[in-house]
Amino acid sequence: MARIPDAFIDDLLARTDIVEVIGTRVPLKRQGREYSARCPFHDERSPSFTVSPIKQFYHCFGCGAHGTAISFMMNYDRLEFLDAVDELAKRVGMEVPRDTQQRNVNPDSIDQYAALEAANTFFRRQLGTSEKALEYFARRGVDADTQTRFGLGYAPDGFSALRDSLGTDERRMKLLERVGLFSRNDKGHVYDKFRDRVMFPIHDRRGRTIAFGGRVLDPEDSPKYLNSPETPLFHKGRELYGLWQVRQANSKIERLIVVEGYMDVIALFQHGIQQAVATLGTATTPEHAELLFRNAPDVYFCFDGDNAGRRAAGKAMESVLPRMKDGRQAFFLFLPEGEDPDSLVRHEGASGFDLRLQHATPLSQFFYDELAKDVNLSTLDGKARMAERAKPLLAQIPDGAFGDLMRQRLTELTGVGARGEAPVQTQPSRTRPPPVSTQKRSLVRSAIGLLLQQPALALALEPTDTFSVLRQPGVPLLAELISLVRERPDITTGALLEYFAEREEAPALQKLASQNLPGEAEKWRDEFLDAMAQLEKQTLQQRIDELQAKQREAGLDDEDKVEMRALLLRRLAP
Ligand SMILES: [Zn+2]
């Protein structure tokens, strides 16, 4: 997030009308100063989703969804942060600062994308002239439409077909090597990496080719599958094959099905199950899990029923547990011996495969089945071992109903409570705002609350900030907010929240920002200045108390006495 200057984000959010951005996607109704709608992020009958043009942010009182125009684009259009920024910048005609853009937009990577696209075109053209490659796809039942949709191709035999065709100059050669299309032997000789293979281009989330997978035609050849190596553009632990096509085919993705191979994705797709993606020869990583759930609430993992499949499922489970926020579900489907999704959907059709998905094992059940393996739950030792295994895993589940139910299940199974002993998350959770216990604390809170409603209030303050030494919770945050507004006087509520988005204070700030304060904006100013004046007074008193304590213990020196007199006089002032 830090890669784009804050000033640019502020400027972008200031020029973007959040009501317009959301309004083109969700029907909004005007209600006083705000707009309301039925929440696009959860199912509801009466509208609890509000958009504030003044604060430039949205908030749902039902599910807690909230954020700026940027986060709306990320959540609704399922864009990455930088892509959402790009998209909004385009709307208002701003140019995202070049030198600060991520790897995928620097001029060098533009050339790399071009080289990959040229290779893609080359492979696709070769497919048209290769009888055996066409025959391969025909045999696997892949029709011409699907071939086009997935950009399938063929890399010819020999060591230099691609090289001869595209590597026409030194620069091009270097580019093609950087994007992983060449190999190099001991003598430094460069040759085509993919030879006599059918080719599957791998797309990023914007549909650009970033790598390739190649599969042998002759079952005797090996390796059966070959992927591009990791390159500046391609990190296999972060990409999912087929996600681009899934997003093209579904306006709303209800579920994602994670399979193992390219052909599984393609066969399912052609049979009408257009929500399948594949990991690229790796176990499911935490990045994958995040990407999956960002795109769909329900995720189904398909694995072979053998031991390797169970192990892979175990890995996937570990990656998804920390991402199991409420509203998300994960399922595990184990396939019969010798079958894969490709063969199954051809034998049983989409309805047969769907039926299997409907009977997939929920994460909760798979979790306890796995942990109970080789454990005898009728013995005390067995129960203890089970609890021992479960606790560190359960501790990773985010706060919420799912986590509660999982812990409850452990208690049912073993009689051991998992709460309390398990590491407790230290982040303040949305459902439990910091308690407003003392009067002092509520003063700081109300100042922060007012600032979040109307950041410009900070500009009305004398720039002394003596209060910042006050030893009270929230004071450093208040000081930070004030200095932030001074630096960026036009900052909106939404932009402030964006600034704190990654910080642990974010949920509390968001809660304060979404309050609707009673009264008029003019009154808020007085209220704010009054709160700040009281904080200054408390600071004064804190120092007086310190000096008095010192007086009792060690006595005051001359300098202290002068200070004390000044403080006492100031305390008397109105
Ligand atoms: Zn909602």
What do these coordinates show?
By secondary structure, the protein is of the alpha+beta class. The protein has five domains: 6-100, Alpha-Beta Complex (DNA Primase, Chain A); 105-234, DNA primase DNAg catalytic core, N-terminal domain (Alpha-Beta Complex); 243-367, Dna Topoisomerase Vi A Subunit, Chain: A, domain 2; 379-414; 439-572, DNAb Helicase, Chain A. Helices cover 48% and strands 12% of the residues. It is built from 23 helices and 16 strands. The chain has helices at residues 6-15, 18-23, 69-76, 81-92, 107-129, 131-139, 144-149, 161-166, 170-178, 243-249, 262-270, 286-295, 307-320, 341-358, 363-372, 380-394, 401-414, 439-453, 475-487, 493-499, 506-514, 521-553, 558-572; strands spanning 29-31, 34-37, 49-52, 57-60, 66-67, 153-155, 182-184, 190-192, 197-203, 209-216, 225-227, 255-259, 276-278, 298-304, 329-335, 361-362. A five-stranded antiparallel sheet has the order 1-2-3-4-5. Helix 13 links the parallel strand 14 (298-304) and strand 15. The protein is globular and about 95 Å long. The two termini are 46 Å apart. Mean pLDDT is 86; it is low at 100-104 and 420-441. Bound molecules: zinc ion. Zinc ion binds at residues 39, 41-42, 49, 60, 62-63, 65.
